[in-house]
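tool_call: predict_structure(chain=1)
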Amino acid sequence: VVRDASEITVILNDKRKLKAKIVGTDPSTDVAVIKISADGDLPTVPLGDSDEVRIGDGAIAIGNALGELDGTLTVGVISAKGRSNLSIVGGAPAYQSFIQTDASINFGNSGGPLLNIRGEAIGINTAINPTGSGIGFAIPVNIAKHISEQLVSHGKVTRGWLGIAPQELTPELAESWGLKD
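tool_result:
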């Protein structure tokens, strides 16, 4: 949502407009942390535990649908967890383990929360399937918490790297390497 932004304005439900600055971004997971300052209390959403989410659980997606319909709320269920290898319009993050829901996530909802039925954020709305309906994806909140802690502490995310990539061992590869069944 903040990629290539030259200026960020956060608009609260009470219509206050606050300037924000980027604390850090992690394009590999499509997570960013921004900072705003304001007088008085700021509204917050309690964070849930995305590891506890089960297929069939209720889901509520909130966002600014189409960039014009602020406060849009749609409901549905969790369809799947751990979705990966998705081709996403605008570029797919390298690390994918999405929560899939049929709660309608529309253009403009990116960055809004995916809530459980207790009103706790369990994900960050991030992607839709533009050729289908009823298929939306959210970054699990537990991944976002881990990434945001690193961004706040260090301004970046550090990952270990082995320098290898897993690959399916096909019969042709096994034969070329002289491996037996």
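agent: The first strand starts at residue 8 and ends at 11. Proceeding to next step.
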